[in-house]
Write a structure and sequence with these properties.
The chain has 135 residues and is mostly helical. The chain contains four helices and no strands.
Length: 135
């Protein structure tokens, strides 16, 4: 479980980096009406990393004892995942390229906010690396 915890904790930085990169690419694409493909690729990369992060987190949750605060963390993360996947589905069906980019941008921004709130729900800072104490 220790190595799984460290993988989950370390992957958080890639998820955050992918979110910021996707937000930057989407914002650039919206502002300039160019570079739509890289924005889509970075959005998809963020979604894939978030999927993996959730899978690791659920595996950790099912495999061990954690403080009650982890339930709030888990709820925020599942909502972030729903925001990301939901906005992607709605964006694909939107019909216009600019509208698609704006919807994806909003979904990832909301997901990033929920991720930050979820990390703080377990009493940690976004970049804090100390282990959780088992409850």
């Amino acid at each position: 479980m220790s190595s799984l915890y460290h993988a989950h904790s370390g992957l958080r930085y890639l998820v955050l980096l992918a979110a910021v990169a996707a937000l930057g690419a989407l914002s650039y694409a919206l502002a300039t009406n160019r570079a739509v493909r890289p924005a889509r690729i970075l959005s998809t990369a963020f979604t894939g990393l978030l999927d993996l992060q959730i899978l690791l987190g659920i595996t950790l949750f099912l495999g061990g004892k954690f403080p009650d605060a982890v339930v709030g963390h888990l709820v925020c993360m599942v909502l972030a995942l729903a925001s990301t996947h939901g906005s992607s589905i709605v964006a694909r069906r939107s019909g216009g390229e600019r509208r698609e980019l704006a919807i994806r941008l909003g979904g990832i921004a909301l997901a990033l906010l929920l991720i930050v709130v979820g990390i703080m729900a377990i009493g940690r800072g976004v970049f804090d690396s100390r282990p959780l104490s088992a409850g």
